Fold this sequence. Notes:
- By secondary structure, the chain is α+β, with helices and mostly antiparallel strands.
- It is built from 4 helices and 8 strands, in the order αβαβββαββββα.
- Mean pLDDT is about 75; it is low at about 1-5 and about 30-55.
Amino acid sequence: xxxxxxxxxxxxxxxxxxxxxxxxxxxxxxxxxxxxxxxxxxxxxxxxxxxxxxxxxxxxxxxxxxxxxxxxxxxxxxxxxxxxxxxxxxxxxxxxxxxxxxxxxxxxxxxxxxxxxxxxxxxxxxxxxxxxxxxxxxxxxxxxxxxxxxxxxxxxxxxxxxxxxxxxxxxxxxxxxxxxxxxxxxxxxxxxxxxxxxxxxxxxx
Length: 205
């Protein structure tokens, strides 16, 4: 085969190589665009959470009674949702409304808050917490007032929604003799020491 016969093949091979290099360059150049355009989740970036965005303060979801008992002006006139045990008594308020005291049931801090609700909402309370009784657990949503002008500056929640989270229950404390064992032993020791003292005093006479 002569040198003139290989020249067309070399020319075609060179052109094909140039086309392949051009295609490869285009693919590599477009890859970053594809990677940023689609993060692999198939989700719209507009739905992603912005960590620098401040929450909407018009509704504070699931606040605790402890937070409200130590609340500052930030909570004033905010909508809150709390869950607590109804205790004490249902007290008549105004215009068919009643007062119900809720306490935080998940701790021993005895934090409480007064809730103004309709008598119909209060009718769902089957028991009120006291000694030997666990009160109805209520989930209340309403507006918190740090110092309510309508109720002589009382810190309270004006309920807009009341639901029963758990029914109340009565329980009788079981008699546990072992609980008196230490007291009984100390009483016996006391009488023994008193008898010994009197015996020693009689001997000194």
